[in-house]
Fold these 2 entries.
Entry 1:
Amino acid sequence: MRNIIEDELSSSSIIRNLSVLDFDYVPEELPHRDEQLRFLAQMFKPVLSNISQNVIIKGPVGTGKTAIAKKFCNSLVSIARGQGKFVDYVHINCRKRSTDSMVLIGILSHFDSRFPDRGFSVQEMLDILRKQMIKRNSQLLLVLDEADALLKKSGSDLVYNFTRFSDESTASKNPVSLLLISQKDLLSMLDSSAISTFKRSNLLSLNKYTRDELYDIVRQRVGLAFYNDTVEEDCQDLIADIASEWGDARFAIELLWKAGIAADHQHVKSVTPEHVRAAKAETFSIVTESKLRNLEKHQLIALYAIAKRLKKDGTAYVNTGDAEKTYAVTCEEYNEKPRSHTMFWSYLKDIENAGFINLKQSGRGQVGVTQLISLPDIPAEIVGAKVEELLN
Ligand SMILES: Nc1ncnc2c1ncn2[C@@H]1O[C@H](COP(=O)(O)OP(=O)(O)OP(=O)(O)O)[C@@H](O)[C@H]1O
Ligand SMILES: [Mg+2]
């Protein structure tokens, strides 16, 4: 017993640095994001002259929004320090802190790690923050990551407050700069009063990574995380191919991580394409889950209906007519009124864009234009279970 444990714990690994494969890890260089980092530098340059700025970053899942924000903000802080200026950088994840009060507690505990997590009103905390900024004579660079969660739950009051942070204290400049990040269109979620401060020019839009860009990202990670020549060249290509369907760097890195762990568990000397394929098959990851979370209720119901139907029929395809019928039945199960035929079509298009289904024209010999739907990658059962969980 002890021998087994000892053997495993002391066995050698092809992974040199596992933490490099963490979701939170941000590498020194971010391939294919130079232009975006330059844009942020141009936008926030005035902060070094005590002039606050507000910027929004928007882009699909795993396109490097959080990574470039962290990279940029940390650089700005240290460059400012080199010039004898003080910038405080606070990064708040609004999915974890989705009320005004929780966001403020998060900010204030950056300045005082023992700041109590109850006992102060929002107004009082804003006042405390204001005094802190004056006392420190610094600028606050506040990143509200996944800001849609805050806006959805608590509205745009807090954002508005930050954009007008100095109004009361006489004539001093606003010491708070905001960087809002989201997959969603935040401008449409802000009140008109808050919108006016976010000029459209302050929007940084990220695109999905292309296959070749993903290849470079994976290659970089292989170099950082693995010992030399322990990942077969084909693996990097294969991972880039698989992840290019989503354009998502996190998905690519997750595949690399899982493939690496699998190879290690087998005590083999290198990661092979077979490990990558196994990782892909196993992966119905948090990545996919976060993609599901971005679908609206009726899109979820439509997807669930398709998954249910495919599982029940045991076929590779379901035609859109049958899918729509199952959709209508599923709506009833969830006490929802089925939406119109046209809407159902638009849901199909949306779910296709999100990468969950493939639509193709049905073969010859059938009447009229009907389309066939398939689930490309993920077993119907798994999609169904996950969607059901989200709907409940
Ligand atoms: N250009 C890049 N070079 C190297 N690694 C990258 C690059 N872009 C993203 N990554 C890595 O991919 C993963 C996902 O990136 P990130 O967390 O920034 O995505 P995101 O756009 O914030 O996604 P989400 O919308 O889900 O929050 C991270 O581990 C990050 O380090
Ligand atoms: Mg992110």
Entry 2:
Amino acid sequence: MNAHNIQFHDLHPTRNEFLDDVLAGLSRQPASIPPKYFYDERGSKLFDLITRLPEYYPTRTETAILKANAQDIATHVGTGSLLVEPGGGSCEKVHILLEGLRPCVYVPMDISRDHLRLAAEELAIEYPWLEIHAACTDFTRHMSLPAALPEGKHVAFFPGSSIGNFDPGDAVEFLRAIAGLVGRGGYLLIGVDLKKDKAILEAAYDDSAGVTARFNLNLLVHINRELGADFVLDNWSHKALYDEQRGRIEMHLVSTTEQTVNVAGQTFRFAAGESIHTENSYKYSADEFIQLAEQAGFISDKVWLDANHLFSVQLFTVKS
Ligand SMILES: C[S@@+](CC[C@H](N)C(=O)[O-])C[C@H]1O[C@@H](n2cnc3c(N)ncnc32)[C@H](O)[C@@H]1O
């Protein structure tokens, strides 16, 4: 592929950053590893499979909301903006917006380098009029745009309820960074998963085909490959539970036996039943999320919901 309308910026986290995060996380009590490390090439492919599972309502619900309201979104946001998508992944949902928004530049950012590169290249061929600057970056460390982009109103698109992966305090900080990125008069269009029945939530994160389990366990495969660790996959099992009080799904990898694991010369002991906490996914009511975004300097413009109130797509502007 040799589309002329794409540039790739590579700020992929270094092996040392990955190692430091894993060693620090495994030293914690209870152990935890940031969910960004799910996403190597295989992790991104497994996530794409998750989005098509019958139990995983968020993707199809959010997609339906975006399709039903694409015209309304375009009316609010207008055309000709610089559209930035942190965690763009396969860049699937942006297709719904591109014709209506007709951005002058699209900047997908993602930690999963090869997956992002391929998705952005495909998009560049499909939309030859669109200038694309794809940036492989860890958006929790670098929230900045590539240099020398055209002027224009900035719109951040953050779908998939990825905001739920942050604890609420960190979510405010992250949203504040987005507000800084889009600047005064800029927009944030964000997908936020809503609080709902525990059984629906737990099924979405523990599907009957076991794809989410493979996705969770792939974290250990990634660590073994990149950091030379010796996790034995058969000694770990996937667990997802909804903590109603905290309003969050927790994903864990549970040690099925007493064992030791070696990572870069350090040994970690795990008792049977002990777990590594691998992801949180916070759920909000639409109003709770508006309050959170207001703390970060946003004003709510509009909330779109599906008929069953499973998911919300929300539009904010930066307070002036
Ligand atoms: C839950 S998936 C959502 C994908 C897509 N936006 C969607 O709505 O379906 C999270 C995406 O964010 C990326 N990601 C996760 N943590 C990241 C980080 N710290 N920096 C950059 N990208 C990250 C992953 O590679 C993945 O593509």
